[in-house]
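Peptide deformylase
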Amino acid sequence: MILPVVAYGDPVLKKDCEDFTAEELQNIQELVDNMYETMYNANGVGLAGPQIGIAKRIFVIDSVPMFDEGEESKGVKKVFINAEIIEEWGEEWGMEEGCLSIPGIRGEVFRPDNLKIRYLDEKGQEHIEEYDDMNARVIQHEYDHIEGILFTDLLSPLKKRMIKGKLANISKGKVPHEYKMRFPKA
């Protein structure tokens, strides 16, 4: 089922999310499936719990479309539950990022090149893995969501001032969008 993407300005996007309990994990597959369907419908490469109104530590990614033809195998399609970044290292590099909750706005964000993350999959199995380059970036962006951080929080002060009016319009529902969205109540 395609769920509405929560728009900028909704308090759930700024919450530090809670872990799933063992009991909640028993019935997680439908949520995971809905998150992937919602993400693909919006042409995204990642989607986190807060973006569908759930203040829980879950995100899905599919970075395959971010790789050039012939290099798609370098992409990652996974669900991360109760994730914790253990370590980040390497040179910080900038790239323009966008967000399904903030349509029409992009900005350069600097992130370290590598990370090590601990997480559960949809079957409740724990993994500790390392990622780099584009996969690390997608994971870091989605991980920020479950920590209550938006990519706009990481922009330069000048860029923040430049987009202030656009962000206000998004929070009022005054933004073109091509997928189902939920805007904050006035």
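thats it. The domain at 5-175 is CATH 3.90.45.10 (Peptide Deformylase). The CA atoms of residues 135 and 141 lie 10 Å apart. bye
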